[in-house]
Amino acid sequence: MNLFKLQQQRSKAQIILVVVLLFLLIIGAVPGYLRGGNWTWLDLPQVENINQIKNILKTGLLLPDWQIIKQQEVKIGGHKWSAQLMQQPNFKPVMLLLLPQSYYLSKPEVEWMDLNGIERWKTDSYRQLNFTVENNSGSSVKARFFRAWNHQQTFAVIQWYAFPNGGNYSPVRWFWQDKLAQLSDRRVPWVAVCLKIPIEPLGELSNAQSVAESLAQTVQANLEQTVFNN
Questions:
Q1: pLDDT digits (tens, 9 = 90+) for 73-90
Q2: How far apart are CA 104 and CA 188, in angstroms?
Q3: Shared domain check, 223 and 110
């Protein structure tokens, strides 16, 4: 009897898996079909301002009241990032890492794992940090916030994928937004963002939360206004 029930459960799981795969296939094919093209995953609209987005690698991101000490293109996990060391008066320098979408078929994948691999840091105190951009868009972001340290320094780290209308630390949110945009022959561009804010050795993460949130709001607002804005 137990074996029979187990077989039934497996059959149900297989049916659900098939339904999910068919749904994803339909979602991917509909935009191309509506445009009169072929039913293909690769038949996607272009990202209108892709060159403007890629230019981050050369210029970094200018932020109000922040001085860029050094900016350069670095390779992490096979991807090109902008590494930007910046500072405000009377504060320690902060590292801003930006991975811009480089091609219309590029999608968010394992960027956070790539960073963990290159940094070789230990981490804890993971939490979600929600904030709203204080501009005309009023867009909201769900970022990942945690403490990281190595043998030299401790950081408060905040990470998310920035979109023109908000952001999220999970690539799944971008996936669904992009699929919906394709129904209108549009795309949702993205930039991976990582802020490394130095704190006291193994200091409390909560002590850096207000600074991290304020800086993250500034970064998101400037990406929306200067990078994603056509």
A1: 999 988 999 999 999 998
A2: 10
A3: yes
Q: Which domain holds residue 165?
A: 50-227
Residues 17, 70 share a domain: no
pLDDT at 11: 60
Tokens 């050094």 locate to 70
**Same domain membership, residue 87 and residue 150:** yes
Pairing of strands 166-168, 191-199: unpaired
Orientation angle between helical segments 171-182 and 2-34, nearest 10 degrees: 50
Q: How many domains does the chain have?
A: 2
Sole residue written with tokens 């769900």:
142
31 with 122, same domain? no
Strands 140-149 and 166-168: parallel
In the chain, which stretches have pLDDT less than 70? 1-43
Would you call 106 helix, strand, or coil by DSSP?
A: coil
**How far is 96 from 57, CA to CA, in rounded Å?**
12
